[in-house]
Amino acid sequence: MSGKRIVLTGISGYIAKHIALRLLNAGHSVTGSVRSPARMDEVRAALAPHLTDPAALERLRFATLDLTADDGWTTALKGAEVLVHTASPFPISQPRDPEKLIRPAVNGSLRALAAARATGVKRVVLTSSVVAIATGTDPGRPYTEDDWTDVTSKAASAYARSKTLAERAAWDIVREQAPHLALTTINPAFVLGPPLDRHYGASVGVVKRMLSGKDPMVPRIGFAVVDVRDVAEMHLRAVERPDTTGRRYIAADRALWFAQMAAALKDAFPDRKIATRTAPDLLMRALGLFDPAIRSILPQLGRLDAVSNARARQEMGMTFLPAEQSLVDTARYLVDQGLAD
To answer: What is the pTM of this model?
Structure first.
């Protein structure tokens, strides 16, 4: 199979670096977008040790693009066959003004798809999120790709609203303006797994916080977990398989309470001071008055939203790394790199 010419937005991100690695190792050519040219060497250095063929770096190019500006998008996408759009703001705590997240996420998707349409790109793979599926309603069963987050719900954070509205905007464009664009979305759960370098996302930061012993107890919340390596593999399969067109795919293994995560970490690192007791909800609400990171999770207290990965398993042939393994692999990376204290 001859490699495809792919534009990958947000290539300096934790997930996107793993996607770039899979694409390059599969023989594709990648143009990665960065907001600042200063990040280019960082990306090269992160990918180089993991490439099956060191010469694959010759198939890596860069473009400087911004989600909030039109400059450079059509130039970057000219001649590309596939757009993989991962770039989207991801906060550790929710902003006071939700529009600071929602506007760049939605407008970034619109800008990227408009450029794809204008330059003759045929294939688009969009990185969405489980938060565009599983927030604000309770179907009494595992959530599936047929579910959509209710953006009017109090349980929907600014981030959940941004991802939901950005994904809906993408599907609307394809349906109403660009039916020739073959769109697939990947909707990852809480993404863990070892980063390719010391620049990692907010989800890995949660594991770092648990390892640090900063908190005496853990909140009564949980998430469906997926390994970043599986998320990257799903993007690769979406790029290479036309039969995934028009489909959403949940990327998840299974849901874990924070207490279960803490217990798995304590088993793996018995000498570390890791809190395993669950904090009363009332205490969490009080702490949230002073800690923005805690305040941002308060709508999720008491929730463990299960999601179904049946479509990814059946249609993509995915097998997912166990959530506990992904968690421990993440922690081991942080400990080995001296980042866990």
So the answer is: 0.93
